[in-house]
Amino acid sequence: MEDFSFQNKTAIRFGKHHIDEELHDAVAQFAQKVLLTYGGGSIKKSGLYDRVQKALADLQVFELSGIAPNPKIDSIRDGQKLAKAHDIDVILSVGGGSVLDASKVIASAKFYDGDAWDLVADRGAQSRSDIDQLPVVDILTLSATGSEMNAGSVISNSDLNIKLGTYGPNTPAVSFLDPQLTYSVSKWQTAAGSFDVFSHLAEQYFDRATANDVTSGIIEGMMRSVIKWAPVALAEPDNYDARANLMWGATMALNGIARSGNKNGWTVHPIEHELSAYYDITHGVGLAILTPRWMKRVLSGETQARFARYGREVWHLTGKDDLDVAQRAIQATYDWIKSLDIPMTLPGVAINSEEKFVEMAQEAVRIGNLNQNGGYVNLTVDDVTALYHDSMTTAGFE
Ligand code: NZQ
Ligand code: ZN
Fold first, then answer.
1. Is 394 helix (H, G, I), strand (E, B) or coil?
2. What pLDDT was estimated at residue 123?
3. Which residue range or ranges hold the Alcohol dehydrogenase iron-type/glycerol dehydrogenase GldA domain (predicted)?
4. Which atom of ligand 1 has the smallest separation from the CA of 184?
5. Does domain 11-181 fall into CATH 3.40.50.1970?
6. Domain residue extents for the chain
């Protein structure tokens, strides 16, 4: 087990009965001027928007709407202007990971006078850790990213074909997690979000730290939970237990607990972020297509014991030896993803040409530092290009 520091200050209000009673005070504790941020309108359809307006009736509420999936820097720039113009005190972010991610960066941008992209690309005179950040309160409506309890954001710049992770000094101050709000999430986004959770767990499970049984066991339990409940949520969208386990699982997968004592180099995420940056595909779907191919590519004499443990503990598999169990576990992963109705190839998400593969692989290796970041297995540009290529067909899996 490696040395680590752990601290997380987000207050969680989980379940059916917190929002109407507690939202006002959770926001008003930070003063009166609120920037309400949301996406393309799902919160209006569900009635949540009206509930929020009612709860905040005596506060001054300004709005930023239209934050898109794979949130774009233009929304951050708009939010920065609003936050400065109205001297906003607190952001109330209502939506999925994209809305939360954008809100956390707007919360920093209020205190920066230059272009908000500087803060994401960490290229200005000041980085986000040098400046203040508005408090963010959120109401989560989609289980996936863990943004509700971490300091990260992932922001896209469509002009530059870049999607970058950025970290602020603070996690959200208060997160309201009501699983009922996710009943209306589409099958596509439910499957994508569930796989995003699984991928966060896998990125932290396949790790070079040794003898870290506490973290390994926590991750295995959470993997079993998402494997069990994702199909239930797809079949019965308003199954509370399924939505509750997916929601808390999403939060717990990426709030720092599952990385404690690890070495923490991620691999599949930087490779997926290039797919989203170039083709604007759904993050969790990109991860689902890449992950079984990545597993197959990094399985070796050195890694097979870990994959065999994954097979035994997560999938309850047996076999004649470690290699056998490891291979079955990778196939089981693929079969589970397929059962969620996720397209299993890049052409399935309308990526039909290999022309950008080398360029994307170069960016993934550069941004993710994949050939030397202490991730599970180092990957070169050729390895990543081959991984994209492997994802064009179902060869080797069907
Ligand atoms: O915009 P609206 O109308 O709200 O619709 C959204 C959006 O179209 C819809 N939706 C959300 N809640 C709903 C709903 N539809 C019906 N009912 C509801 N209750 O779902 C669509 C997708 O929303 P989005 O926020 O984009 O999804 P998700 O939560 O999966 O977020 C994905 C983004 O988070 C980043 C990803 O890269 C991607 O940009 N990530 C953030 C991370 C972090 N902050 O730690 C880590 C992750 O690895 C990830 O990279
Ligand atoms: Zn993710």
1. coil
2. 76
3. 10-179
4. 17
5. yes
6. 11-181, 187-390
Whose atoms come closest to the Cα of 45: which ligand?
1
Give yes or no for a contact between 314 and 329, defined as CB atoms under 8 angstroms apart: yes
Ligand 2 centroid to Cα of residue 125, in Å, is 29
Tell me how far apart the alpha carbons of residues 194 and 247 are, in angstroms, rounded to a whole number: 9
DSSP-based three-state secondary structure for 167: strand
- By C-alpha distance, which of 262, 254, 261 is closest to 97? 254
| Helix (H) / strand (E) containing 382 | helix 381-390
* % of residues, the chain, pLDDT over 70: 99
pLDDT digits (tens, 9 = 90+) for 308-360: 999 999 999 999 999 999 999 999 999 999 999 999 999 999 999 999 999 99
pTM: 0.97
- Give 75-123 pLDDT, tens digit per residue: 999 999 999 999 999 999 999 999 999 999 999 999 999 999 999 998 7
166/153 Cα distance (integer angstroms): 5
Which class is domain 187-390?
Answer: mainly alpha
What's the CA-to-centroid distance between 153 and ligand 1, angstroms? 11
Which two three-digit tokens encode residue 4?
């680590």
- Residue 90, helix vs strand vs coil: strand
Q: How high is the pLDDT of residue 373? A: 65
DSSP 17: S
Give the mutation target among 51, 94, 247, 283 for probing the ligand 1 site: most ligand atoms within 8 A of CB: 283
Question: Token pair of 53, please?
Answer: 């307006």
Q: Which residues contact 142 (CB under 8 A, 6 or more apart)?
A: 95, 96, 97, 182, 185, 189, 193
Ligand 1-lining residues (CB < 6 angstroms): 39-43, 69-70, 95-99, 101, 141-142, 144-147, 150, 152-154, 181-182, 184-185, 189, 193, 196, 254, 269, 283-284
Cβ neighbours of residue 321 closer than 8 Å, sequence gap 6 or more: none
Q: Which residue has its alpha carbon closest to ligand 1 atom 22?
A: 69
